[in-house]
Amino acid sequence: MTAWTAAPAVALPTDTSEAEGRVLSGGGSINLNDIAELEAAYSGYPSAPGAVQNPLDATVLKSLNLDLGNGIQLGSASDVLGAGILGQYASTREDGAPFASAGAINDDGSIAVAPNNDEAPAGDENAYVDLSGTLDDAGVAELISKLRVELGALSASATYDENGEISSDYQVADGKLWIESPAVAEIAAKLSETADQLSDPVNNLSDTVTPIVEQALAAVSGLGVANVEVTVDLEVDLKAALESALEEAITDENSAVGIDLSEGALTIDLAKLVKDSKPGDKFYGTLNGLDPNTEIVDPQLIQAALDGAIGTLLDQIPAAAAEAIADTLNSTEIKIEIKGEATLPVPVPGVGGAFTATLEGTLGQLVGTQEPAIEFVVEGDGITGTVLGLLEPVLNETILPAVQDAVKLVYDRLTDPEVGGALDTVFRPLVEAIKEAITPVFDAVAENLLSIVVNVQEDPGEFTHPGATGEEGSAQLKPAAVTEGSFTQRAIKITALPGEEPLATVSLASATVRQADATGEVDASADDDAAADPDASADDDAAADDDAAADDDAAADDDAAADDDAAADDDAAADDDAAADDDAAADDDAAADDDAAADDDAAADDDAAADDDAAADDDAAADDDAAADDDAAADYAAAADGNGGDGELPNTGSNLSLGLLAGAGALVLAGASTVVVGRIRRNGSAL
Fold first, then answer.
1. Which residues cross the membrane (predicted)?
2. In the listed set 516, 531, 560, which residue is the last one of a domain according to the structure?
3. Is the pTM of this model over 0.85?
4. Residues 175 and 102 in one domain
5. Which end of the chain is more exposed for a tag (fewer CB within 10 A), N or C?
């Protein structure tokens, strides 16, 4: 971005247009508007016109701590302001409308459109405002320990359209509200403490396996088995598994709410929150397109989003726990060892004796959720031939399936919420407790702690630049003052502890413009059929009253009537008040006196038509006391008749009627007491 910074301009009371772009404004007991490093881009016409780019310096911001007072420490400015939202732009000029913008903007001041949540995360572009320091003052520190608003790309712009109407825009790419609650974290911690309840059935599998083995071996036909000893080597700690499951944030793509139980953290996606209340793609992924001054942290909005959402999310806990437990069990090593002595009914030397049958692998392999399958392997010096042929089928076809069934029953109860209800029995009381803890947290945020308003539009607006024109045209003596006739567009405004006296207010991306009416003497423009002389003409803003009507022969239309002090009486006498008579035609015989005489070429004929020859040239000029000289005379001031012009004024910023000035001078010399003054509005056009 091209950047240059001019010396601070100071507006003059005569400035007719102003523009100011500012990224960060507001504050608490300490005013951000007073910090020089955050100074806005400002332009004022005619005192200091042109385009001003004053992007904030990222290097300087790193060392600038933003302490708003009242316990609100925003950290360094570079942390608060995302890397992409540092632009500030202002422009004024003679023939165009003022234009201001701030935030994520292009070199020409236009808004740089950012992707929405679906297209790309805001990432390093994010800005944030941390309001955790307000929690003690609010008396909710035990309920809430952290409160932070994180925002995507921000922009705002303001100008006037060709009709002189305000034209503004804003951008808030995305927004999230981060809340940490000690109360929620404390209850959530108890979830991992349930690990012993869940681990015990697994670790006690030896109590289940031993009787199965003993009963099966005792029933082997044709083989005697004695001194059986069963050992199950298995140890599992599901606490680590549960903690791992709880470290993952619980979210739903259709929900505005997310929960991280490991930290007791709650998040609200503000864009989805709006989408839930205003269905439609227009609002998805961003906070753009909202009505002016939309309050996001609205109790009804939040309640609508939370209804059912918290329960739906917390209902995911058993499923998340089941998945984590399954992963742990599948990888847990198990070893079942059976020792005994096998003998034939008729002893045979060297046949039979002590044996060891071993089953070794993972629980996943044992219950069939992992490959390869495992089976008992028999070892023993005399365990060959007939003995082995009798022993192995019992071990792998009778004992193994029975053991698998017993283990799988425990496995399924821990890994499938639909089986046995063990997980629900363990977690349901805690889930309900978490629900009860979360509700007051959101209530406190929505009703007491925070206000977030998007698409802020203020009319009148507020200039922060020292010297910007204040009320009654006087220069401001202090920064940040409401300025009559101005307009401010802000992307977002965040208020801590809103109320009659908020603790602090921070606005991000603000654009303020003012375009005043130009004030000057009335132009002597009339239409083709009713051209009046300089003494009896007024512009659109000088409406003719009852005492200033001209007759049919010299009627000035509604836009060209003179005021009370320039009324034309019925006898057409030019009295001391400079009234023109009914005929009002300055023909050859009705020349004005020496002080305001128009020559024969400048007199309006009986029909009051001022043709091309009625221009106020040297011969038509009034004398030195009331004449408009050659350089000041404009042919627009002597309204043309059907042959000499269309009677329209050019669209410029200085349409003062020099013809009227000449006529006014004549009136003054004739003893008139009032000079007619009108207002000409300068039509603005967007840059």
1. 656-677
2. 516
3. no
4. yes
5. N
